[in-house]
Amino acid sequence: MSRAIVQTGPRAIEMREYPLPQIGDDDALLKLEGCGICGSDWSQYVGESEGYIRYPIVPGHEPVGIIAEIGSKAAKRWGVKEGDRVVVDPAIPCGYCRNCLHGDYNVCNGRDHIPYLGHVPAGVGGTALWGGYADYMYLDPHSLVHKISSTIPAELASLYNPLGSGISWAVERPGTSMGDTLVILGCGQRGLCSVIAAKNVGVSCIIITGLKRDAAKLALAKEFGADHIIIADETDPVEEVRKILPKGADVVVDTTPNYSKSINHAVAMVAPNGTIGLAGTHGSDLVSGLKSDLIVRNNLKIIGMAAVPYRTTEIAVQLIESRRFPLEKMHTHTIPLERTEYALQLLAGKIPGESAIHIMIEP
User: Fold this and answer.
1) Where are the domains of the chain?
2) Suppose 180 and one of 1, 65, 250, 296 were both cysteines; which one would form an S-S bond, judging by CB atoms 3.0 to 4.6 Å apart?
């Protein structure tokens, strides 16, 4: 049997037990060591995913664990064996739809449910164990599995998805290269990992924004390589960026959640012919006051950025294993499975007097 946190509706989670699934030649069973939490987990918890999620579900899409049982075909496909430590991409693509065949598996539309860990309804494939908030997790034949060194602490290994996001959002998707200038809006996990990714490729000037309450995160951003920090609730972030970069930034990456004015800021900060990457989701907070003429006149490129490609996760794993950056300073809390609701509230800043950067749920 496996314990699992089950979401039955908005702000409704409970602990249940489920039998372990039968494993055949093509799939596997993961004994979880932990699962990272990101901002989208909070959004899912409060019901912002309502309308495209079918309850009940086991949340959690940033798992790290040990292969407990694996079929022969799956072992050959993934290059792993029982006892190996792995991390798993959130996406579970079908492999056959047009998007998957083009390599765009992050927008797979070949399944009748959302093809992501933590979003698959209980009962699909005969199991409920489709998420990382549990003792065990089922690995579908289409899972995207990455081996990671067993010498890396689980808390550090669980940073693979935030770091992969930083590499994808700050560098790969916008095409940022050595000598470019970059503004990162937001200093959460993925904003900080964007600093790391940018520093790693030789970006010449890295600016990151945050709020007064984010002092610890911004100090860490400086340690990771940010050249300038801007306190967005004490000053005008656009004016401050223009003081540092009068012509604007080559690239602006928006990681801020639920604050649509950041898109207006990005348009005002970026240089002509520059690129804006939108990664923070804003839910029902609609953009208003956008000066679209600036987008046209300045020949700006705006791209949406979701999920992390397989190869980028491989790079993130390699960077974690290199220990080149003190990533352990991002991890602030390891919280037991039975206190998952508290962990979600803590990450969202809902616990008075407490704050967190990265949290791992531990069975």
Assistant:
1) 2-159+330-362, 164-304
2) 250
Instruction: Strands of the chain (E only): list them.
Output: 2-9, 12-18, 28-36, 63-70, 85-88, 136-139, 145-147, 181-185, 205-210, 228-231, 249-254, 270-278, 301-304, 331-336, 358-362
CA–CA gap between residue 117 and residue 164 (Å, rounded):
16
φ, ψ of residue 282 to 5 degrees: the values are -120, 5
Contact residues for 141 (Cβ-Cβ < 8 A; gap 6+) = 26, 27, 73, 74, 77
Phi and psi at residue 350, in whole multiples of 5°? -100, 0
Which ranges in 121-188 belong to alpha helices (H)? 154-157, 160-167
Paired strand residues for 182 = 206, 251
CATH number for the region 164-304 comes to 3.40.50.720
Which CATH number describes the domain made up of 2-159+330-362?
3.90.180.10
Token readout for 219 is: 């100090």
